[in-house]
Request: fold
Amino acid sequence: MPIKQGRDLLQLVGYQLQRASLAAEQDARRALQPFGVSPAKLTALVLIRDNPGCDQTALGRALSINRSSAMRQVNILEERGLVERRPGRDARTNALHLTSEGEQRLGAMLDAIRESDALSVSTLTSEERGVLRALLERVASQKDRSRPRKRTPAD
Amino acid sequence: MPIKQGRDLLQLVGYQLQRASLAAEQDARRALQPFGVSPAKLTALVLIRDNPGCDQTALGRALSINRSSAMRQVNILEERGLVERRPGRDARTNALHLTSEGEQRLGAMLDAIRESDALSVSTLTSEERGVLRALLERVASQKDRSRPRKRTPAD
DNA sequence: TATTGTTATACTCTATAACTATA
DNA sequence: TATAGTTATAGAGTATAACAATA
Reply:
């Protein structure tokens, strides 16, 4: 017998967000499996491609992780030959770039993820998808989340 | 200098879902911190309260985790005196119930989470929140996610 | 002093695989 | 055979705290 989700959960936007996000993430993970990367790593690759020469700390901020965690991700992408560290704007920083292999593979990954994304929301009309994306963008980019904000994720 | 999110990311509903979900989850985590539980554990508590006597495997399915992972969560909730295992419908199964302390604490947790949830979507009108919840529900409960589905999370 | 990268360490959450005891 | 619980183990992802080099 299946479990009931009562009103206390269903009324929470955060609960629905989590469930929808998890479902889409699993779809994406499956689609990216042949490439051996997670959805988060694909995001990192796209950010590096679109911000060539960025440093690890900035990348981490964009991914909502701290620079130590960002380093780990970059290490993995570098080991796989997708990303390289070049000398940065000063002697402390690395400039991140995709390798040519990284650029090539990323193209195929994006094809796969676009297909998977469409499947994740295949029950919505094209207009509804637009509405959803716009509402989500407002929630995600809401600056004041009340409460004392001190650090950006934590560091 | 901040990092640019190009169109390749912004056009993906899954990307926006993940960002909005993460933001709301962090809000929830902060709100629940005084209670020492994560958002996922709150979900487990509500599901147990609303499905008294359910077993661990069913709980896991509702949480999209397998029975081994469900066990770990129940162990923690039991250690904290919020949940108890009683004899189940047959000798293999446990019947999960909230303790009286669990019921009491859950009430306060729900107050906190409702407030946090409202803050997470405070830039949306009440109507927009309803639209968002409805759209998310359809994405989350979409049954056919194409591709060969065999196991429910994995087991 | 502040910042970047780095390392070591630990924690949370999840999964897999195997075992047991039931059914 | 199939199912529920359990255990041991491993992996991914993140965090904290320190340190060195540089600004």
In short: Chain B has a mean pLDDT of 94. Chain B has one domain: 13-139. Chain B has seven helices and two strands. The beta strands of chain B are 83-87, 94-98.
